Amino acid sequence: MPNAVSHPITARWPAAYPEKLQLYSFPTPNGVKASIALEEMGLDYEPHLVTLSDSDVKSPEFLSLNPNNKIPAIIDPNGPGGQQIELFESGAILIYLAEKTGKFLSQDPKTRYQTIQWLMFQMGGVGPMFGQLGFFYRYAGAKMEDPTARDRYIAEAKRLLAVVENRLEGREWIMDDYSIADIALAPWLNALDFYGAKEVTGYNDLKNVPAYVERFYARPAVQRAKNIPPRPE
Prior knowledge:
Elements: E1 21-25, H1 29-41, E2 45-49, H2 54-57, H3 60-63, E3 73-76, E4 85-88, H4 90-101, H5 109-137, H6 148-167, H7 180-194, H8 198-201, H9 208-217, H10 220-225
Parallel strand pairs: 1-2
Antiparallel strand pairs: 1-3, 3-4
Helix pairs in contact: 1-4, 1-7, 5-6, 5-7, 7-9
């Protein structure tokens, strides 16, 4: 019989279906990694909208699940060995869900580690660097007169895009088959549109990357998941 979720976070975000995996998220590039994986893998889950406001992510209830106050986070009441597991960090969540379902992470050791390698490329490179680009190009940092930071992150975004462009030469996906590496990477590539930074980074001059992102977002599961939990009106 399925377990029921038990955690302090439910005081603020009650579980209507406590036997299901619980997702606490917001549809940012990091947030949708989890919802896309859950939709692609066909897992039954209950999403909870955690806004990016301090009142949510720095609330005692959310901090009890993720002391780093970032989305996404999950609770699976039926985790390894039938025991509840709580996880934060989108990369860790992707690996866990892939192992739970046996989907989108090869069992072949070489392919498995190479997939994780590209997942870490997103986690350590594309995500942080594109996030800084967004801050210095679109948000508060754009007001700075000194262009040093802005130019740095534009240049780094160009470099990272070139790595992905080269990797995708002759490929549909980052690995031979669709994987959690794609689920991690494509939403961040797509974020350049949100930041209004496609032109400045040379995105539109590339061949493989735009086609890859379009291919990714054409997947039915991605279409369903890209606004889960729904943004407030």
